[in-house]
Every structure is written in structure tokens, then in C-alpha cells.
Amino acid sequence: MAEGTGKKASDLFVECLEEEGCEYIFGVPGEENLDLLDSLSRSDKIRLILTRHEQGAGFMAATYGRHTGKTGVCIATLGPGATNFVTAAAYATLGGMPILMITGQKPIKKSKQGRFQILDVVSMMQPITKFTHQMASSDNIPSRIREAYRLAEEEKPGATHIELPEDIADEHTDSRPLKRSLVRRPNADAKSVRQAVQALEAAKSPVLVIGAGANRTMTSRMLLQFIEKTGIPFLTTQLGKGVIDERHSRFLGCAALSAGDFVHRAIEASDCIVNLGHDVIEKPPFFMKNEGGPTVIHVSTKTAEVDPVYFPHIEVIGDIANAVWQMKEDIVPSGSWTFDHMLAFRKAEVDHTDKLAGDARFPIFPPHLVQQVRATMPDDGIICLDNGVYKIWFARGYTACRPNTVLLDNALATMGAGLPSAMMSAMLYPDRKVMAICGDGGFMMNSQEMETAVRLGLNLTVLILNDSAYGMIRWKQANMGFKDFGLTYNNPDFVKYAESYGASGHRVQSAAHLVELLAHCRDTPGVHLIDCPVDYSENDQILNKDIKELSKAL
Length: 554
Prior knowledge:
Strands 3-2-4-5-7-6 form a six-stranded parallel sheet, with helices on both faces. A six-stranded parallel sheet has the order 11-10-9-12-13-14, with helices on both faces. Helices cover 40% and strands 17% of the residues. Helix 7 links the parallel strand 6 and strand 7. By secondary structure, the chain is α/β, with parallel strands linked by helices.
């Protein structure tokens, strides 16, 4: 036991986390975390969730942040444990999800182990976090934890990191936890609102683009009221899906492809674009031109990051929901607005998708798969997409009815996040149906978390789209005219693999069988894995050629 009076530093550390409202800590502890682990064992407010890889822990913490707006906390040891957090840190920072990563370290005052396992973790984390700090004194623990939480949750949310060396964790201190501060986002300036409204009233065909920031700040109610009052149509980016129920008659689609889709033609038909919560981390849903082109209004909590294709004319900065409310109160809908042209593009897209979705071939055709998953899931069901070409099919064709019911990552777009993301969703919302949708490549990057899901007694379905290849890259390879090379592999027997973890394994035999399996897994408790062979042979033709030609012809 270390010398000194007062409380042990690791106990204080846990008390500070409790004061912040921490419910879970996800991770893989190591020797350098043992003081903290011992202190954590006595907490009746925080539950330790042991994962099988630090990356899975980081993805779970980030998804907790995405759903709740509160900081997700994860823990790892020094060296290799900390390096395994790097992808999760980037995932959270780019995706706007608040997390605090805690890593251990050898004693910093005197160590007898040379440089064994020692990396400069703080410098490594610097470019991909909002805050990173090595604790060098136990007296500073309360202020450093408060600062890490504050910065993690402040717009734009992201990752923070604290390194707790062994000897600091074992110190004693008289410091006490700090209370959380009460913070409200400032309201948008009335003059900027007036400018935006004047531009909208003067336009012929305005349109709303809903991005990532609008999904984080709970704008649904205000936006819906604005759309109902004005009748202005809306579309979303991938990270904006679900802010408004996509069954709405004014919904124009999701900008899942980079350009040339029906939804992009609808934007091109507009002379005034209101971009709500735009983040340059996403592929731009439209490209601005230096001369001519539509008026672009940027509504967000932060001023616009200027990009070669994004340099808005009017900026309304402040709480997004409040800005939308101010605009709604001020605006007089114009009798000369015309939206028929835009809505015609949406109708053409729906007609095209419906024809494709009726194709019940085997292996399963992606549009058909999307339709069947949507038919299976209730309105508040949550699908968590890993990364692959199916993400484009789901972003375009899956109708999101509620916010954060389609968790896809269009920021870092990392493989391996689908399963941990679904596990966190199932933990937070035990009464809702949850499905992870993964390619065989992405699933295998964190498949060991199946053990964690079974151990936690979660209810979820893992749908694996099996093409024995890195299909997204293969699609791109074909599109660039290169020969098929270097992207195919063999898979384990996924049914046996699931069963070896104590989960239930199923293999799709036909399109009709897929429908049965989806319903069975939805209605049967436990962890289910469905091995679903997919036919990606027409990806290039449909997504790169047909859609562009059909939408252009309109």
C-alpha cells in the first residue's frame, strides 16, 4: 500500500466516474489496471463488461455514446491494449460519439522494467482524440476526468483518453470528485435566422438535407413541424437516416452513393439547399460550384468547415432544433414553390427499387434482402450495419422510421463494428429487436465478441452476408476495369462457429427460407447467427450504370 493519508487514487478515480453517471466500463484489463479493477469491484453503480478484444470494447462504448449522448467508457492495459483502442478512438471522433478511454501504464516515478511494453500512448492518441492526458498526480484526477467528459460530450462529440500509471493509481489523496456542470447550447442569432428565411421565401424549389449533427441533437420534432408547415421536401445523408420517419410523403431518399443517383438529381433541381447538421466527414450529398448554383444555408452547432465542394452562403449557428423552430415561426410558405420535379425523382427511385426487390433468386439478391429485413423489423427495431457494399443497399432502400434505428458508420467506415454496435444496442434496449448486418469479412474482424454476447445473455440476430470475398473492394475493382484479383477467401462453417459459442446457427436455403429464419430469430430469445449467401454479381451494373442512366433520363 502506498504512503500517505486520504483516499486511494484508484478509489477516487471510480468515484469520479460514478459522479459523471458512468454505468458501464467495457474492456480487457491488464496488470497495469489492477488497482483500478480492485476499486471497480466495490462499485455498486458501474458494471464491468469484459470483452474479448479492446476494439470490441471501444465500439460498444462509442455506440453507448451514440444512443445516449452520454460518454461511453472503456479500459485497456498499456502497449498492445492501448494500440488496439486506436481504431475505436478514430471511429468515435470521426463519427461524433462521446467516449473516454482509460489505459494503464508502468510506474512513471520509478520502474524496474526498462522500456518493456512502453509506448508514448498520449502522443499516439493526440491526433485522433479531443483530449489525451497522462495522470502524473492523484490530486488532479477529479479535474482531468471532468475535463475528459466535458470535451467528449461537447459538439462535435468524440473520443478522450486518460492514462493512469500504476504508481499514481496506488497513491493517496484528499481530492474529491467534481460535480458535472449544467450546459445549454446557445441559440442561433435572430438576424441569421431572418437571412435564411428570406432566402427560402425567395427560392423556387428549396430542399432540406439532414446530416449527422441533426441526428445527435434530437431535432426530429422541430424538423417535422417545419416540414409540415412548409411542405419543403427533405433527404438525408447516411448518418442522418431516421431523424424524420422516411415514410413521410416529402422524403426524397438517402444520399448513399457519391453522385448520379435519383436523390442527387432531386438536389440538382433545387435552387436553395438548407443543410442541417452537415459534417464534412461524410461524403458530400451535393457539390457546390463557385459560380451560379443554388444558395446554400448551413444550420449547425458549429460554423462550416470549408471544403473544395462546400462553402455555404448563409450560416445559422446554434442549437439546431431551436434554429429550426425560429425559422418555422418566421417563415411564410411561398405559393410559387414547386416540388413536383423533385418528388418525381423519388417516385422513380421507389419504382426501380420495388422491381428489383421482387427478385427472389438464390443466392439472395441485395434489394430483396433489404426488403425482407425491413418487413421483419418493427418500427423501433435497430439494425447495426458493419461496412461493406450492402451498406449502400441498406442506406438507399431500408426505410428508417425512428432516429438511431439504422446505425451505420459513414465516417471512419470501419469493418468489425457491426456486432459490438448491435450488442450495445441490445443491452441498452432489451425490449427492442436488434440485428447486426455484417459481411463475412467484417464479421470475422470481431467475431470473438459472439462469446461476450452469449455470456451477457443478449437477444440479437447476426445476419452474415456471405460472398467469400471483400465484396465492396471487388465491386470497385470491377468498376475501375481491373481484373478480379486478391480479394477472395474461404470462410468457416458459420453455423458450427455460432454453435461453438453457445449461439444458434442457421443457414439460408432459399428466398422463402430467409423470410422464415428472420421471423424465427426475431421472435426467439438468445443470440442467433444467420449465414446468408448473397449474389453481388449485379452491383456494378445497377449501382454504377443503371441508376445513373435512369435518373439522367428523367
